[in-house]
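Encode chain A's predicted structure.
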Amino acid sequence: MTNCDFLVIGGGVIGLSIARELKARHKDTRILIIEKEASCGFHASGRNSGVLHAGFYYSPDSLKAKFTKLGNERMTAYCERKGLSLNRCGKLVVAKDANDLPALDELIRRGQANGIEIQEVSEAEAKRIEPRAKTYQRALFSPRTSTVNPQQVVDAMLQEAKSDGIEIRFSTAYMRRENCGILTNVGPITAGYVVNAAGLYADKIALDYGFSKKYRILPFKGLYLYSSEPPGAIRTNIYPVPDLRNPFLGVHFTITADGRAKIGPTAIPAFWRENYEGFQNFSLGELMEVAARGLGLLANAQFDYRRLAVEEVAKYSRSKMVALASTLAEGVVESNYQHWGRPGIRAQLLDITKKKLEMDFVLEGDRGSIHVLNAVSPAFTCSLPFADYVCDRIEHSRMQTGTPLAV
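Encoded structure for chain A:
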């Protein structure tokens, strides 16, 4: 039997950040992280775009708006302090036509309301920032957007967690809740407090604790195509004006930490939670569950799920991806985009009562546990201040007498 004061389920960037913040606040406690894989960052934390977002997409009343600006600052400082790769390449948001201009204005309004450094630029100024960029009349430039190598960040956090005295057990999977703790595939663990940061399976674990009753994870597959052009062929991230009604930003150019360009990501509905490639990690139960939920959304969703699914599945085609990217930049040809990157799965939370995708962070918990149900983009950027927030909620909830925590 293993005993600990705090048990963190999930060794991604969120779990590592929360564990380290708990240790900083409670130095004499025993903190244990369990990770079902053989290393940290195997899932979303190591497969995400690596973009440190600036924070102008999000409505001012959201938790995302609250954490992104500070998260960008703190993660940038962290990478500098640790000597990790950091590309201060900025971001252009470009308009396709006149129909995009009202949404571009809304991004500018949100950025100003959130205190984000952004610049409204003319078409000529956009060309000076990135000579290959295409835009209609004007664009938005974010100098604070940068890119990192996400696996480098996760590895650095893991080493710091170990140095802090946090114990990490790999190949240790949550099986079910037991009286004063949990049962794993390698035995039981008792814990004074449980933090569920399990990503794709956070809702399943939360159900064992009486939470996530109206929420389920809906997985979406993200794919990137890498350019064979030399580093620096495109200098800055180039994004389209997004549809602000859904959480996906559309196909765009991301410049990696080492200066290479990639286009994507897709947001293709996945058939099961870890549906990365072929029948890897196939689960018949998950296939049936996800399929049934998808069929229900075709008729009843509060967003156009049918259109989303059709448009996204088409992006399995390289030519389709390149065609979409060619609306953003000059000289985009399919012959330069032959290599698919490692797929990622976005753990997107769905409110099954309202048939809508949750756009912000969602936490539920009580005196004994807290569950990070929705930590989608820009969770990587937000991870450090978000961990502070989670730990504040843990301290608050532990002082209560059974009052559920829901934010």
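The first strand starts at residue 2 and ends at 9.
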